[in-house]
User: What shape does this take?
Amino acid sequence: MIEEIPVQADSVAYIKGEVNHIIFHNPENFYTVASLHVIQSSEELPEKSITIVGLLPTLEPHEVYLFEGVLHDHRRFGLQFQVHTFQRDIPRTMQGIIHFLSSDRFPGIGKKTAAQVVKTLGENAIQQILADRRVLEEVPKLPAEKADQLYSSLMEYQGIEQLITELAKHGFGVELTMKIYQTFKDEALEIIRTNPYKLIHHIEGIGFKRADLLGEAIGLSGNHPERIQAGCLFSLHEICMQEGHVFLYKEDLCREVISLLSAGSEQITKDEVETEILHLDEEDKIMIDGDAVYLASLYFAEKGIVTSINRIIKNKEKMDDYPESEFLKALGALEEKLNIEYAPTQKEAIQTAISSPFMILTGGPGTGKTTVIKGIVEVFAALHGHSLEPTDYKRDEPFPVLLVAPTGRAAKRMGEATGLPATTIHRLLGWKGGNGGFEKDEDQQLEGSLLIVDEVSMVDIWLANQLFKSIPNTMQVLLVGDQDQLPSVGPGQVLRDFLDSSVIPTIALTEIYRQAQGSSIIKLAHAINRGEVPEDLKTPQPDRSFFPCSQMQVQEVIEKVCSNAIQKGYSAKDIQVLAPMYRGTAGIEQLNERLQHLFNPKVEGKRELLFGDGAFRTGDMVLQLVNNPEEQVYNGDRGEIVSIFYAKENTEKKDQLVVSFDGIEVVYEKKDFNQLTHAYCTSIHKAQGSEFPIVILPVVMGYHRMLRRNLIYTGITRAKKFLILCGEMSAWQRATEHQGDELRNSSLANKLKQTVMETAD
Assistant: This one.
């Protein structure tokens, strides 16, 4: 514990000194301990050397710094200076500045140029340059290239310190400040001083209110146009991300912006907001289409999908036309091979897919979608003379059939069902991560003859646009999905819009087939989807059970169910608890904590690494939260921690854990731990596209607004063998009666219908 000196607590305002050496520096959280030779201080110190501690970027040994903070007397380590803010010391005299600027720190700046800079700008030249790079334009005969180089070098030399000092005034800690600097580099200070609202969409941890405080400090307050524009962009982005809309109606956007920006006596008017919406449209920062206001990226994604679908649909005349006799011959051979007989609707689906450039196949659980997909692939290959053995193709030869899904687990299921290679959409398109973009686009399209996309309801409008523009005219497309499941996490309702447009051939499978008729899980899913709570919901079934309990009893019930499953030989890999919300006694966070203690308790000898309020242990089931294309793992992938290495045990001197995702092992350092969360309990959204042997699904009134039919339906359909339900009947009734989200704002269906009809005419 650190204690302040009793006599002079908080009395030392600053210490100026030269860094002797760095005792400790953690590059992950910037915690630093260094030895300082004191040159000057605001109070007399017992010695000329003192230890400084604090969150600091890399300090340079033998450089002079000015530190502000508080003296502490540490019980173990003695007198220390706790740093709050700091800056690198710079010369104050004309000659000192000339010598400083012409040193090796600033390549290309000689004594003559440095003297000209100081002569023009004076003794505070460096402060002026750091404050506004444009002052260098006043220096005679200073080329723009040299001016840029001088500014960049100064920012690199002192920019972090300047940024820390500037942001510390507004309550920003060093860690958040370093995030800003790492993102914007030389431009960081200029952004803080001119457009702090830019931080909102680039820096995690900075919302509108925090950026607005910075804006107020530089005069962007009240009804300032830049503030209103920032409010428009923020409101539009946040609501589209949270509610899945592709656009907002102008009236709704104005209301949201007025609510966000108006406070106390300062009221923003609708006219002021509408004026700035028009200015943003003129600058192409947003797009206006009638009464609809779009983020530019969503507008062009919607427009791009319409163009791509219209192009693919018009491919019909280029397709091979096979006599029905050949189709029936190929289908008959397949039925004989598989020892099955396709139902009339299934045969229609296979034939339509074979003969159409673009088709949609929909259906709930047990309706035979997987069987139809396998039939389409086999008959397509037979009619086109394609081999379905990957070994028959050379390395640079495209495999004729591409099978993809939004998540890794959905792709794996697809591959297991068909016996063919399957992958994620991101991997198929060559996503590079971050700002790297995709390899595949309209200029470098996919190769192959048939593309089948499963779980299309999970695909948002951005990913759909990227996928469809990457499809060449010669490729046939089949989309497969269940329209009654949850929509995509991101904006849009692509599958629903495609169906509503009525321009794409669609076959809906509705009959539950014999092999699925014995499943009470499937029967329950269809009943819930019809808005019915079956009378036998509480009656034990061979594959389904219900345990009535209150919200406060949920944890205990789930723990007992899991304990019984463990005794029967099941492991955490076989069991998935699904919950709609993160907070509360029946929420994901508390359930994960309790289930970790059950499945993987802390015991002597078991390795663990602390993170946040919890810990990761060897044997833990974890969930990947972000896409990581370099390691071939994606958002929603479930894995197991197989190893933990402490810093002293590896050459990198960092704590590490290793997670196995179905055989793919990924190494995580502590700075990457926020990519993971425990997976004993997860959200229904995160589980979409996956199936688990045992699913435990609590539903209680405490879930409030999350009690929706499509959410419960999606959760039920994740169970492969056993479904354990618990909770309150009133909550089940409410969830079943509530049909789900209101339709999202989207023009995709109407634009598709209009465009396809116009081109057909």
